[in-house]
């Protein structure tokens, strides 16, 4: 689906040499870790539990009523650009947007209200997100089938379990809600992240978000092209498993408790990876919805602008993740282990940062 291509695409777009950028990013993470270890010796972010946004049934009804009027040609842009990327950015700024707008939540009005099984946690959401990223990256023509399956699954789950189904099992809502914890207008993001329940499947959700973004970059490299007999779906799954496995290895028994500290990194990669897509194809999505002819303005996607946004987003996301992980670790581990236990996670974050930047600007 070439119309939805994104990213800078080549190393020469960098405002600085790639090796210098990678060295600078590694030094910034190491310096921040050392400074935190010396100066930040007690937890500072007490968990802040925010109330669920009030039901916007009229808004959801309006969204539902408007869906039949979406032109057929606009659906890929509505889903891949506005829903997947646009709502993610809006959630970072204002909170869980999809929870407020989700028209499928209307089924809660007639729900049976059974108790949602705690053991399921976010696993249904992780599977939904993996299926969606498969559609996005491997088989975009399967989008109609995915949307039908997504709607049927969530209408059934919402009818049986009510609002708790959407909060735990709806992939797009879990994704939007996690990024919404970074919203500065709803409270201190670090405190809100610290209040994230370590539900089963939370690590899987984060791994899908990071792994799918990484594979999107990997899949466009000449190295992957030389591995053409390997199917893309297998590459996607293996990349997600690699992210999940390396994180579990670095955090050992604290993977679920520390998983929310990866949300800033997810947000950084969303901005870095999809910035040019959102700016250019977002304009085209609006034109398709309004049924007007429009040539997108590409002023904000000049190579220097895009590469600067990408470097800044990745680095800021990782630095915020280091701060969040450090503070969280102080509350989980005994004093003697607080610094040494963070070293494997720091190494992993350096690898993620260097690997992410290298993939974004790979030739």
From TrEMBL:
Keywords: Membrane, Transmembrane, Transmembrane helix
Ranges annotated as spanning the membrane: 20-41, 57-75, 81-100, 120-137, 143-169, 190-213, 233-250, 257-280, 300-323, 343-362
The protein's name: Uncharacterized protein
């Amino acid at each position: 689906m070439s119309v939805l291509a994104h990213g800078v695409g080549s190393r020469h777009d960098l405002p600085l040499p790639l090796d210098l950028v990678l060295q600078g990013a590694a030094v910034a993470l190491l310096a921040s870790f050392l400074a935190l270890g010396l100066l930040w010796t007690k937890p500072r972010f007490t968990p802040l539990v925010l109330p669920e946004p009030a039901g916007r049934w009229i808004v959801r009804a309006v969204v539902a009523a408007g869906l039949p009027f979406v032109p057929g040609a606009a659906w890929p842009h509505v889903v891949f650009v506005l829903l997947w990327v646009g709502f993610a950015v809006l959630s970072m700024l204002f909170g869980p947007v999809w929870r407020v707008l989700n028209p499928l939540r209307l089924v809660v009005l007639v729900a049976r209200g059974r108790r949602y099984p705690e053991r399921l946690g976010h696993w249904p959401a992780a599977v939904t997100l993996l299926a969606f990223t498969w559609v996005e990256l491997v088989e975009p023509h399967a989008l109609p089938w995915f949307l039908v399956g997504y709607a049927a699954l969530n209408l059934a789950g919402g009818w049986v379990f009510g609002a708790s189904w959407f909060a735990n099992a709806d992939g797009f809502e879990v994704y939007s809600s996690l990024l919404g914890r970074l919203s500065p207008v709803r409270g201190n993001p670090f405190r809100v992240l610290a209040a994230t329940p370590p539900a089963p499947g939370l690590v899987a959700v984060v791994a899908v978000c990071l792994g799918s973004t990484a594979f999107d970059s990997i899949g466009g490299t000449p190295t992957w092209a030389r591995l053409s007999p390997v199917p893309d779906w297998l590459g996607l799954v293996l990349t997600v498993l690699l992210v999940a496995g390396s994180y579990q290895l670095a955090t050992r028994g604290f993977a679920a408790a520390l998983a929310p500290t990866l949300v800033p990194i997810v947000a950084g990669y969303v901005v870095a990876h999809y910035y040019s897509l959102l700016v250019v194809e977002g304009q085209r999505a609006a034109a398709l919805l309004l049924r007007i002819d429009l040539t997108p303005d590409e002023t904000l996607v000049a190579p220097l602008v895009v590469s600067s946004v990408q470097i800044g987003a990745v680095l800021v996301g990782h630095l915020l993740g280091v701060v969040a992980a450090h503070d969280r670790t102080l509350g989980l581990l005994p004093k003697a282990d607080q610094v040494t236990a963070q070293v494997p996670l720091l190494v992993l974050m350096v690898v993620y940062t260097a690997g992410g930047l290298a993939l974004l600007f790979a030739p």
